[in-house]
Structure formats: C-alpha cells, structure tokens
Request: fold
Amino acid sequence: MEDRRTLLQAVLALLAGGVAAWWLPQVLELFAIINATVYVAMALLALSLALVWGFGGILCFGQAAFFGLGGYAYAVAALNLPDTTYAIPIALGVPMLAAAALGYVMFYGKVSDVYMGVITLTVTLILFNFINSTAGEEWRIGAAPLGGFNGIPSTPPLNMPGDPGTALTPEQIFVIAVACLAGCYAACKLILRSHFGRVVTAIRENELRAALLGYNVRLHKLAIFAIGGLMAGLAGMLFANCVFVSPTMFSLAYSGQVIIWVMVGGVGTLLGPIIGAMLLQALTAWAGTLPEVNPNLILGLVLVVAVLAIPRGLQPTMATLLRRRAP
Amino acid sequence: MDLVLATGIQALSGIATLLLISLGLAIVFGMMRVINLAHGEFLMLGAYSAILAVQAGINLWVAMLVVAPLCVGLFGVVVERLVIRRLYGRMVDTMLATWGLSLALIGAVTMIFGNTVAGFSAPLGSVQIGAYSTSGYGLFLIAATMVLLAAVWAVLRFTPAGLIARGTMQNAGMAAALGVPTERVYALSFAAGAAVSGLAGALIAPMSGVVPTMGTAYIARSFITVITGGAAMLAGTSSAAGLLGSVNTLGTFVTTPVLGEVLMLAVAILLLRLLPQGITGRFFRRSL
Amino acid sequence: MTALLATEGLTMRFGGVVAVDNVSLAVSERELRCLIGPNGAGKSTFFRCLTGQYRPTAGRILWRGRDITGLEPHAIARLGIGIKTQVPSLFDGLTAIEGVTLAVRRKHGEREARRRAMAALERLGIGALSGALVGLLAHGQRQLVELATVVAPEPDLIILDEPTAGMSAEETAGTAALIREMNRDHAVIVVEHDMQFIRAIASGITVFHQGRVLVEDCAAKVLADPRVHDVYLGRPPTPQVVVPA
Amino acid sequence: MTKYFRDGGGDAVAVDFFPLDVTNFGPAIQKIQAAKPDMVVSALVGGAHVSFYRQWAAAGMKSRIPMASTTFGGGNESLLLSPEEGDGIVCAFSYFQEVDNAANKAFLEKFRAKLGANTPYLGAELAMRSYTGMRLWAEGVKRAGTTDRMKVIEALGSGISVDGPPGRTMLDPKTNHVTLDVYVAEVKNRGFNVLQHFPNSPPADTQSVCDLQKEPNANRQVVVDVRI
Reply:
C-alpha cells in the first residue's frame, strides 16, 4: 500500500507542476513571472535541505553555500562558454563536488552534530566574506569578473540548446524552473523508495544499528549530502537566470530562511518544505508592503512560534490532524 | 620601538574586544549548553540601552556599567521564561528559536528606532605613544575586559552562588536532589549571560556603529571564539580570543584587512578540525 | 582447524585504566560460548573491541585466521557477524518488517529480502508485529525484533551483549532456549552476568575478572569452581585449589 | 581613485580594502599614522564601518589629518556620529538638503507642510535621486504620450531633462546616465555646509568607454579604464 501512495504523490506533483507551468505564464505579467521563478528556485533549495536534513538527519546550516556556488559556477561558465547549455553541467558539478568535499571533512572527521552545524555555518561565512572581497580587477576567471559586492549582473541567461543566439524568455525559464522542481521532487520520492534511500533513512533513525548491519554510514551520508548540494546548486543556477548572482546568495539570511521554511513546512517530509517555502516567501513579501511592520519581526516570530508549537512542522501536523479525523 | 608598543596595544585591544563580545555567549553556551544565536542582538540591545540612557541625561559611565547590563539582564530573564526554558536539551531547536528571536529583535528595533540612532563619542580623549596616538578609551576597554573576566572567574570560583550554578550545570538531577531550585538557577545563569552581553554591547558602543543590524557583525566572531575555545568556559574563550584576536589584528596590520579576516577564519576551521572539542577539549581541561 | 574468531593478547587501555588485559580466546564454528563475570570485569569493553566500536590498544583479532583488528563496525558486520548491542539499538521510526528487511536487503533482492525477514519474525514468534512501528513496541518485543534483525541475514557468528537485560524470569528462560535453537545454524557468543540464564544455556564459559580471563571451561566445572563464587561475591579469588573430578 | 589623485597632481600613498563586517580599525588607523599622508579619502560603507570614523576621532586623529569621503553621508552616517566625530569631513553629492536655491526652498516647505512632525532629514542625495528619477520617467511618458514600455524608452533616449531642487538633471543619450549639478560640502553639526557648486557635470568616465547612440543594443559590461 505504501508504494502506491508514493507513486501517487510523485504523479500528482508532476501534474501540479505541468498545470502551473502551462497556465501561469498566460495569466501573470512579466514582473510576477520573474518573482514566481524566484519562489520556485527557493522551493527547490528548501527541497534540497528537506532531503538532507529531513531524511539524511544532517542539519546543514550552510545549504546557501551550495546555492551560491551553483549560481556563481553557472555565471562564470556561461560568460566563458559560447553556448550556455554547456554551463549547466558545471553549475551542477561544482556545488556537488563542494558538498562531497565538505561532507568528507565532516563525516570522516568524527564531528558531533552541534559542531557540524557550526562548521557548515562557518564555511558559508568564509565563502560570503571571500566572494565579497573579489571586487578588484585581478579577481576574474577567464572573461568573467567576479565583481565582489556587486555580483555578476551581466550573466547571460540560458539559451535554446545548440542555438546560442536566442536567449530563453523569462516565461520559458519559469517553465524550466517548475520542471526542475517537479522533477527533483519526483526524483527525491524515487531515491527515498530505493534501497539507498531506505538505508539513508535508517541511518537517520539509528546510525549504530545501520553500521552493525554492514552499511557504510559515512559513505551514505556523504552521498545524500552531495545530492542535496547538487539540488541546491540547480536552485542557484535557476536563481542566476531570473535575478543575478551576488554574494548575498551565500549570506546568513538565505541559510537561515531556508531552515525556517523546512522547519515550518515540516522536517521529515518533502511536500511540506516546498509549500512552506512558497507560503513564507509570500508572507515576507506581503509583510514588506506594510508601512509600519518590519518583515524581520514577522519572520522571526513565525520561527520562534514554529519551534515552540509544532516541533515536527506544518505538514505532518496537518496530516496527523486529517488522519485523526478520518475514520 | 614605539611601533612595536603601539602594535602590541592594538593586538591587545583586538583580543579584548573579541573576549568582551564572546564572554556573554560563553557563559550561556559554556555552562548551559544553550547556543544563543540572538547573542549579537543582546549586544545591540546593550548599546541601545546605554545610548538611550545617555540621551535621557544619565551619566555616561552609569549608563554603560549599570543601566545596560540591568536592562539586558532583565530581558534575558523574560526570554528564558518564555522560550529557552521549554527547549532545554533540544540543542537544535534552541538554535532555531534564538535565530528567530534575533530576526525579531532586529525587526523590532528598526521599527521603533529607525535605522539610525545618534551615538555618543568615546570619552577619555586620546593618548600619545611615541609617534602614534591611540584612543584612551581603547586602553580602558582592555582594563575593563580584564576586570570583568576576573570578576566572573571569582564569582564562579569562590562564591556559593557560583558553586551552585556550576553544580547545576554539570548534573541538574543531582543538584535538584540536594534541594537546589534548578529552574531558578537556569533563569539566573541565562540572565547573567545576557547582562554580561549587555555590558559588552554598551562598552563597545562608543567605538562602533550602533545600528539595528550591528549584531550580525559580532555574532559570527563570538560564536567561532566560543566554539574554538571549547568546554571550559573562561579558559577556553580567553585562549581562543587570544589566538584569533592576535591573528586577526596582526594579519590586518602586516597584510590587508581581507587577509586578516580570512586568516582568522582559516585558523578557526583548522582548530575545529584538529580539536573538535575546542582548545580546552585537550589543554587546561580541568580549569573553569 | 583454525578458529572462527580468535583474539591474541587483546588489550584495551583508557588512559591509566586497563579495561581488557591481554585476553586470548578462540571460538570455533557452530560453538556457543558465554562470557561472564561481575560488572566492570571488562566484558562489554571486550565486546566493543570485537564489534570495532573500540580500536584495541594492543593485540590482534582474527576471523578465520585473517587479521581484522581495527576494522570499522560496518566492515566487521560484512564478514558475516550479527551484532546485538547492550542498549537495544533499533530503527524506531520504521516498522518491524522494514527494519528486518533492511538487514537482509544487503545480500538479496527486495522480494527475497522481505520473504526472509518475514520468516525470521515468525521463527521468533512475532510475525504478527511485522506492521507495527518499532518505537511503539514493549521492551520484550523490541528485544525480539532486534534478535530477528540480527538473525535474519544468517550470519556465521552472532554476538549478543546482555540479551536478557530487563527481562522477567520466564522471558530469560525463553531467550536461552531461543539462543540454543539459533546455535543450530550459527556460532554464538553471549556476554551475560545473569546466573539463571548461564545455567539454562550450559555452554562453554569464559569468566572475566578485572580485564583478564580467570577461568575457561565447560559450564559444569565453571559453575562449581570456588574462584568464580568468590569473584561474584566480591571476595578476592582464593588461591588455585584443584577440586578432584 | 588613485587615477584621479594622479590626474590631480597628487598620489595615493596606500590603498586598503575592508570586508563589510570589520569593526576593529585600530591597525588601519595605525598604518595611516605610519604613512603620514596629507589627507585620507574613505569609501567605507555600512553600519560596521561607521566604527572607523568613531575610532579615528577617539584616537585624536581628526585634528591632525583632514578627511574626505565619497560615501560618507549617503547612509545618514552624519546622524549616527556626534558632531565631534563627524564635523569637517568633506563629501561630494548631487544634492544636500542645505543646497541654497529657490526650487529647493519651495520643495522643502511643501515637504514639511505635508509630513509635519515626522519630516525626515533628507541629508545627502539618495532620497532626492529617487524623486528625480521618477520625474524623469514621468517626463518620458509625457513625451511618448503613452506608458508603453518601448515607446517610453525611445522618448527617454531623445534627451529628457528635469529642473528641481538639485538643479537641472539631463538624461545623457550616449550612456543613459545623467548630467547633473554636483555640490561639495563639509559635515557641520550633524548636517552639511555647502562649499562649492559644479553645475552640469557630465558622466565623463562612462562616456569615455560607452556610446549607445553608435551601438544601440550593446549588452556587454563596460569597465572604465582606470589602470594607472
């Protein structure tokens, strides 16, 4: 029974993605489309943390580091390559390798959970500081100036594969973003249903027992962490295509917000954080329009209440509510 | 010769500032295993309460040394009652809750005071060392930090309250069995940590830009200092502040400020890799 | 015939304290061995050296003659050793069948693994609990699920650390019978100090005392040996007295 | 900046860059004292960097070495610092609230009438530039007769100008930047004392490398050549 339910959820997700991708571009005008693409990219970032933290049991305070690396890798590659389609593998490879390297340092370094949070936080800070101070002329990779605090505004958007001349329109980029989100969601569902996914979930439940059954715990954690890094990098690439790449992608704000979204959406689920990300971004945007109220205050209070009231997050609480009411 | 002396003083004031802003966090984290990500905002509240006290006509020194720690200490009690008390033992949730608190505080202060509040300039004028002149207040800061460190050490080491606090932190169950009201000890310890942070915020106010987001500049530094310091609260934080403070100051002096920063963070990562439990995880293990 | 599992001069020192002092023992295929001794005799530390949780300070561990000292726990488990730790270590968030399937899944396909897992649960009489969430089960049931998880992949050797901890009298007797039945297909090493369980098992016994092997013999002789009584009652062992057979 | 020092006949003794969250400027102040420059030019920005001006005054350096800044005042720093710390710093912006002309006086009266008690201090440039920007757009819409994006862009390209409190602001068709009046002022008692006025200053550096009239849809990032 459980397998049918996961397949149903995966199909539903792809369907919802399809409808949104087809219908929204007709309805929304340009500014809203770009905004929607940012929401989708952020939801994908939340999904990557939901997979790594919710199922891998690895609380990474620095998921924004891979988000930023994905964006910057794409920007630098796109500026140096004739056809931006070749920039895609680089934009995914760099954050994945970075995640694997950071994962190796943490999981093979016998680091306890608390220090893992600290190390991921510190690494993001170092990247933020480093990228921020690359304003000078000498900081360029090939034809791409890193641009320090101002980021790289002149990043060329994705173009039709094989035809560098015609860049994709924002509507097309939105469709690609939704496709990526739905695709990654379905991929997560399949990964978690696979043997590898079950072992990763078991490791979250009890690391020692998994090891005593012969599973290489550190390798599995490294792998799921790298997959999370890849997804966050993909989100970074999408972000680079609808906004532009800047050091703020590495900032504490993004790392913090993504944790809030997953926490409020529901640690231990996939759909929860996606919904949480979209809802909270809309809430922050709405709060920004209120003259007297400062968005930080609302976002902060939401997190404090979320931690105190619903330790396992929005979606499971709703799910348990629904199940309890159903006979 | 005066160059060496002046640079030495710069290094000392760098270390003192780092120690000052980390001490409050060390008390809360070192003793209570509570990671307070709103620590930066506690500093900011300390600075703001000092400035508002001065604007209300209270003497500068009274405002800094009395009003600020008192206000932030009381605020600490409120925070402990409402939020922290429900999350003992849940390290990750405390991190997230205090992160939310930090965002909320920045938002609230920006709403109430706007982005700019008129600060007051550093008292005690300037002091001439050979060809170099440095601020008299900088020297006062170094002295104040040493006194504060000694005071906290003395309280923990010699007073019964200090003993009870240390006992409760190591084994709350046993302490309760001996009749110690552990709830109140936790509340007072968190308040003490908050008061020290408030005092630190007030002391650095004349030397820094007091804006609602000033906390974010300090939180990373104090966090890294306390974590690299390790379990033993005072010895750990002081040794880490000494190491990181001097690396940062001398690095900035010899090379560029950017390298000074990167050097400090690199040393921190190296330390975390070699000594995952921090400096006092290995050296001066039994000290306070 | 080389031993299935042997230790040569195994020593484990924590700073000044020598928890396991130069212990050499050998267990052959299909053997059932009990490691007994009062609390703090070094049994659990010795167990953790075998499972790779601790890296021994000196000495060697041999698996069918091959040196496996210092291997990671997962590498040791892969040799075909089923391990049950003192504190029950289970997948609370999964159902019983899911946990046990996972144990077998490393060597078999999904369907075959599920079939064997179900068989293991039934063999231990808890087939009915297969769909239950492990976290919600009672203590006794959890011990049985853990035993099923260890037995299901059919290891060559099973090592158990105090399987009867917190069990009632008849549950202990039941577990002893179960372990005898398991011993038909797998060698078993049990770390225990519950006298009632040891009498019920009546297998070869090695007595630990202050990190060293005091006595190693069949159950009858060991249980009659005055030194074992002294050690259990906390008196220093009386000098070697040979009791006529 | 070094290029403009050289063009002006001076030279840069030393240049330092600071990460945004640096708050301890002790070493930097000491390096400056060691270098004994005639003046210091700061491009520091952000809340943490205000500490530099504080520590500079605390070290008693304000009376010894004059200071100018390209960014001071933009972020209301003049309000943050006490008069002893801020007074005397020279800055240059396209507008100060204290600019003395009829348009500015009329604007300020209407502004205060509208907001009354909580009228904010406009300080330097930022608020006024946004106001003037909107008016330039409005002018483009008037000329194009429609708010359609492409038509307004065309109208803006045909040379639009607006007169207001900062003086005359003309949209330069070659660079899409603006030619405007620039004022040099020194900080005085948390406000500004306007010293000099340079009317109609064109965006010379951008014009030297970019001409949108010749190549209308150029979209590469243009870098002004400041190599010395």
Summary: The mean pLDDT of chain D is 84. The beta strands of chain D are 40-42, 67-69, 90-93, 161-164, 167-171, 178-188, 191-201.
